[in-house]
Design a protein that fits this description.
Layout (H helix, E strand, L loop, with lengths): L11 H5 L14 H7 L16 H15 L2 H15 L29 H18 L5 H15 L20 H7 L7 H10 L4 H8 L6 E3 L17 H10 L8 E3 L11 H7 L6 H8 L4 H9 L1 H15 L24 H18 L1
Antiparallel strand pairs: 1-2
Helix pairs in contact: 3-5, 3-6, 4-5, 4-6, 5-6, 9-14, 11-13, 13-14
This protein binds protoporphyrin IX containing FE.
Main location: secreted
Cofactor: heme b; Ca(2+)
Catalytic activity: 2 a phenolic donor + H2O2 = 2 a phenolic radical donor + 2 H2O
Length: 359
Amino acid sequence: MWIRWNLGLGSLESRHGFRGIQLLNSMESTPEFFLSNLVKGLSWTYYKSTCPRVESIVRKHLKKVFKEDVGQAAGLLRLHFHDCFVLGCDASVLLDGSASGPSEKNAVPNLTLRAKAFEIINDLRELVHKECGRVVSCADLVALAARDSVFLTGGPDYEVPLGRRDSLTFATEEATLNNLIPGTANTTFILNRLAIKKLDATDAVALSGGHTIGLGHCSSFEERLYPTRDPTMDKTFAKDLKKVCPTEGYNNTTVLDIRSPNKFDNKYYVNLVNRQGLFTSDQDLYTDPRTKDIVESFAADESLFFEKFVHSMLKMGQLSVLTGKKGEIRANCSVRNSDNKLFTSVVEDEAEEAWSELK
Ligand code: HEM
C-alpha cells in the first residue's frame, strides 16, 4: 500500500515506478501540514540537483539485501529510532568509540542493534558517494533506509524530507539510557519520555507498531515469565515463550509479531488485543486506558495505522536534526571526518594540489 503525498512535485508514481492510491485526508496528515511544519533546513527536494538518484540507489540496494535476509529491515528501522531519540537524527549512533571514551553505539540499549545494519548504511554511503560525491549524509541514509524497510516489507511508502547533517559528537551512556526506552517500561513511562520530544499517545502507539517486524531477546521480556507469568499475557503464549527462554538469563531470540513476523502490517495490534504482545511496553498499551482505544482502532483498521505511523515517523525523523552549516557530511559513517585518517589525508592532498596550482 502506498500513502501518497501529493506535494506538487510531479508524479511520485513514476519516481518509484509503481502506482498507489491516495489514502490521506485527515487534517494533520495533509501535505500542507507537513510542508508548513518541516524543520528549517530540511526539504522534500534536497538532493534534486546534487544527487537526484539517491533514493533509487538506496531502494535498489535494499531490495537486494532484504531478498537475502528480510530480517535486516527490522535492524534498519530500529536503527533510525535509536538514532533519532538520542541527540536527534544525526547519525551519532553510528560513530565508533574514540580515545575519549566509549561511544553511544556501545551503550547498553544499542548493543542489541544489528551489526549488519551499521554495515548496510556504510555500503549505501559508498554507493551513493561513488555516484554523487560526498553530499549525502549518513543521517539521511538512515532515514531513507528506515522508510524502505517499512515499504519493502509490506508497509506504506512515503516521502522523507532530507537535508540532515551528521553529528561531530556522540552521546554518553547516561544520555543514551535517559532517552531510549526499555522493553520493561509501562505506558506511563513511555508517554512521559515521548512527551519530552513532543510526541503524544497516538505517536507512542503508532511508533510501537514498528514491532510488527523483527526480533527480541529473552532478556527484554523474561521478567514477564519469571518468577511468575505476567497476568496480562495469554497463557498459551507464555507457555510457548518459556520454550524459547527456558530459564532466566537464557540467551535466545523470538519474533516480535507472532502472526506475521516479517510483514509490516497491523497484526502487532491484533496480537495486543489477544494478549500476545512480547514486551511489557507493548502489552501495557492495551491495558492503559489512555492508549487502549488507539490500539483497538489500529487493530481494526490497517489503513488508519499506516496513516498515523507515517505521520509519527515524519515527526520522529525531524527530532533535533542538524541542518545548514551544522555538523558535517561524513566520508565514513562510523568515523567523524576529523578522526578519519584516510579522509584527512585526501583533503590534505587536495589542499596541497590547490596550493601548488596557485604558486
Ligand atoms: C516505545 C518505545 C519502544 C520500546 C520500549 C522498544 C523496545 C524494544 C526492545 C526491547 C527491542 C528488542 C531488543 C532485543 O531484545 O534485542 C526492540 C526491537 C525492535 N524495535 Fe523497538 N522499542 C520502542 C520503539 C520502537 C520504535 C519507535 C521503532 C521504530 C519505529 C522500533 C522498532 C523496533 C524493531 C524493528 C525491533 C526489532 C529489531 C531487530 O529485529 O533487529 N521500536 N524494541
